[in-house]
Amino acid sequence: MDLIQVGLRIKRLRKQCNLTQEKLAELANVTPHYIYEIERGMKTMSIYTLNDIVVNLDTSVDYVLYGTSTPAESSYPDHLELLVESVPYSKRDALADIISAILPHLK
């Protein structure tokens, strides 16, 4: 396991979720400086902190630690995927606009 890569994945996911280090730290019950050190590969984390981070970044432990997803995640489509598959291609741009408008209000 490469701590620098772990930190880079956490940082990338945190930014994709539009979270600051301060907000992720609050959600994971740690200090912002600790998140800073994790993201730079300077510190390891307990299993409890790792769990809090992956839950709040909506990812898997496998992805954070190794850059891979678990087979269960990649094998089965989630409910949203199934709904989108049922929408005709001609209507998907409209659906994308609706989802884009809603996403900022989900967090």
CATH topology of the largest domain: 434 Repressor (Amino-terminal Domain)
User: How many distinct domains?
Assistant: 2
Report how far the terminal alpha carbons are from each other.
30 Å
- Contiguous low-pLDDT stretches (5 residues minimum) are none
CATH hierarchy: architecture of the largest domain = Orthogonal Bundle
Task: Please tell me the overall pLDDT.
Answer: 89
Indicate the structural class. mainly alpha
Radius of gyration: 16 Å
The level-1 CATH class of the largest domain: Mainly Alpha
Work out the helix count: 8
Write the CATH homologous superfamily of the largest domain.
lambda repressor-like DNA-binding domains
Portion in beta strands = under 5%
Shape: elongated
The amount of helix comes to: 55-70%
Structural features, described:
The chain has 107 residues and is mostly helical. 64% of the residues lie in helices and 0% in strands. The protein has eight helices and no strands. It has helices at 3-16, 21-28, 32-39, 47-56, 61-66, 71-75, 79-85, 92-102. Helix 2 crosses helix 3.
